[in-house]
Design brief:
It is a single chain. The chain is mainly α and about 650 residues long. The chain has three domains: about 160 residues, no CATH class; about 180 residues, no CATH class; about 130 residues, no CATH class. The protein is about 75% helix and about 0% strand. It is built from 26 helices and no strands. The longest helix has about 70 residues.
């Protein structure tokens, strides 16, 4: 009849991990470390409001997928890169709520406390106080939790209001302030799941405190719920079971029958209900009626204590109706069943002591963040699965196993990050190699050299054309054939000059011919000066345009090379630091996993040892009862003789 988890009883097991998860201890510490590891290497970048919304919406996307670690990581990275100013305090509330959910109390308080000031919008302030109240309650600071709830206004949603009232009832209940808790129950509006859990938990505590009447009244309300919600149906079963046993202790077996009969035969509490139903009927000496639920119960899994009890209760009930032969057979069946169970238990215990039992405890899937497909697998050749299911029913072991699964998932995340860092390093190395290949490309470098030579020649021609225009040097505009002729004429002129120095040679005729031809050549060139100058300028302009295009191409190439350098320069220190951080977290995780495995193994051994002791005691009871029955039958036989 233990209390339902006060932090979040109304939500499914998957949602529970986000909405109000109990602190995970080591697992929570490592989660925070992982998120911080990612955030630590996120660079500060000014982003537009639209891009900021993408980061915020990414966190929301993960929340709706129930991937709360990814949501928390995304929120941490976004906060590190830039404040989500476009969303105001909404992003901080999301971040703070996720931090509360994962037990990161220091960060949660640091994020949420500034949102509780009078300058904050009332709706935001109320939500911040709500998250803080939940966090204080989870860590056991009931006074702080109560004060936080007192600060909450009336802007919360109906569901949040109901949850905060559930927390308040839980605070009063744990402090033994039952009158105030009963008054707080009256503040619920509408039939909500939170109200049902508050009533159940308060009813249980009232029964424990000896306040039988108000406790039974609260549980009776839950036991008569009309619902198809699986969680509420299970809660209804628990309430009826608690009522039945409470009435049995109060010597009211007639009333207890009603509540035991209301439980489902296939529900998780059906074994205890069948056992209690048999006891309530036997208390009225209705032994034949008591045998009906006990006979049903004894055929179920022997590992359940209720089944073990029924295996002895059945032959005892047969004794009471004087079916002695059947009683003997059932006592023998019970002893044989206990022997078999002890044999299997010894095998499993042996595996637990040697560490092999951890193979069955390790989930067969560790990459599903939501945990939907995580389940223990059986050791090969050993029926460990049924013992694990029984172990997981215990609160301490179940919580430790949840932490273990979380640690395994985080190890998977770290391994993935480690591979990504290595992949990014390889990508940078490839980019650097490609860049170096471009820089060392001989053909590309020679083209760049030719461009520089062409520019030098272009500027030289430009200066020469300016001189020609200034000096009106028409001959400088001669074409190639004309330049050849002029060069030959210059050679002829030198030859005539040499001959003219010889007295016996008359070169007058040759000189006249030279002057005639040279004059005609100069006349032709000078006559076309304007046209030739225009053609020269046009050609030079075309060359300049071509050079400009080439210059732009070179500038683009230089820019591309500079950008290429930016795609790999400066990353090595960041990758080295990221690799160091990931390695550090991985080492911590492996240590935490090893510790958690040892803890689980120890819990399993202790529980299995208790089961063995209990079965041995039940076997001893069965043997003693069988011996007693044999003595009784022997005495009756002797009396007849």
């Amino acid at each position: 009849m233990s209390n339902v988890n006060q932090s979040n009883p109304a939500c499914s097991a998957r949602k529970r991990r986000f909405i109000a998860r109990w602190p995970l201890g080591t697992a929570a510490t490592v989660v925070v470390g992982l998120a911080g590891c990612v955030a630590a290497h996120a660079t500060q970048e000014p982003l537009s409001p639209g891009v900021q919304r993408l980061f915020f919406n990414e966190s929301i996307f993960y929340v709706y997928q129930e991937k709360y670690f990814s949501a928390l990581t995304s929120a941490e990275v976004s906060e590190k890169r830039h404040p989500l100013t476009s969303y105001g305090d909404g992003a901080k509330l999301l971040h703070g709520g996720l931090a509360v959910a994962y037990g990161n109390r220091a960060d949660a308080e640091h994020i949420l406390q500034p949102l509780t000031t009078t300058e904050t919008v009332e709706k935001t302030r109320d939500q911040a106080w709500f998250y803080l109240a939940r966090m204080y309650y989870q860590r056991g600071d009931l006074t702080l939790a109560e004060n936080a709830i007192a600060q909450i206004g009336n802007t919360l949603s109906k569901r949040r209001q109901a949850e905060s009232l559930n927390l308040l009832v839980g605070i009063y209940t744990q402090q033994g302030r039952f009158e105030e808790a009963l008054k707080a129950l009256k503040r619920f509006r509408g039939n909500t799941e939170w109200e049902s859990y508050a009533r159940f938990n308060l009813g249980i505590e009232l029964l424990r405190a000896g306040e039988t009447r108000p406790g039974e009244q609260l549980l009776a309300t839950i036991g008569s719920l009309k619902t198809t919600n699986p969680e509420m149906v299970a809660l209804r079963d628990r309430a009826n079971l608690a009522l039945g046993f409470s009435l049995m202790r109060g010597q009211s077996p007639n009333r207890a029958v009603k509540y035991f009969e209301q439980l489902r035969l296939s529900g998780p509490f059906s074994n205890e209900a069948l056992l209690g139903l048999g006891w309530s009927r036997s208390a009225r000496d209705q032994w034949r009626q008591a045998l009906v639920p006990w006979m049903e119960l004894k055929n179920r899994d022997t590992i359940d204590p209720a089944v073990q009890e029924a295996m002895i209760a059945v032959p005892y009930g047969l004794e009471r109706i004087k079916a002695y032969d059947l009683a003997v057979d059932h006592y023998k069946d019970a002893i044989a069943a206990f022997d078999r169970e002890l044999g299997e238990l010894e095998t499993v215990l042996s595996g637990a002591h040697s560490g092999g039992f951890m193979g069955a405890m390790r989930p067969d899937m560790v990459n599903d963040e939501r945990g939907w497909n995580w389940r223990p697998v059986e050791l090969e050749g050993v029926e460990a699965g049924r013992y694990l299911r029984h172990l997981l029913a215990g609160e301490a072991f179940h919580r430790a196993f949840e932490d273990y699964r979380t640690l395994l998932y985080l190890e998977h995340v770290v391994n993935t990050w480690e591979l990504k860092v290595a992949s990014y390093s390889d990508i940078i190395a490839i980019r650097r190699a490609n860049y170096q290949a471009l820089v060392n490309d001989a053909e590309r470098l020679s083209q760049v050299k030719k461009l520089e030579d062409a520019k030098t020649k272009y500027y030289s021609l430009q200066r020469e054309l300016e001189r020609v225009a200034r000096d009106k040097d028409a001959l400088a505009l001669a074409d190639a054939s004309e330049a050849t002729v002029m060069k030959r004429l210059q050679g002829i002129e030198r030859q005539i000059a040499q001959l003219d120095r010889q007295p016996a040679v008359d070169v007058k005729l040759q000189r006249n011919k030279y002057r005639l031809i040279s004059g005609m050549m100069q006349w032709n060139i000078t006559r076309d000066y304007a046209v030739r100058m225009w053609d020269a300028k046009s050609s030079l302009e075309e060359v300049g345009a071509a050079l400009e295009v080439s210059e732009k191409g070179k500038a683009a190439m230089d820019s591309a090379l500079a950008q290429a350098r930016g795609s790999f320069e400066g990353f090595e220190p960041r990758f080295t630091e990221a690799q160091r951080s990931v390695t550090s977290v991985k080492t911590r995780l492996q240590t935490a996993i090893a510790r958690q495995e040892d803890h689980l193994q120890q819990l399993a051994i202790e529980e299995l040892e208790l089961q063995r002791l209990q079965i041995e005691q039940q076997r001893a009871r069965a043997r003693f009862s069988l011996a007693r029955l044999y003595d009784k039958l022997s005495g009756q036989e002797g009396a007849r003789k």
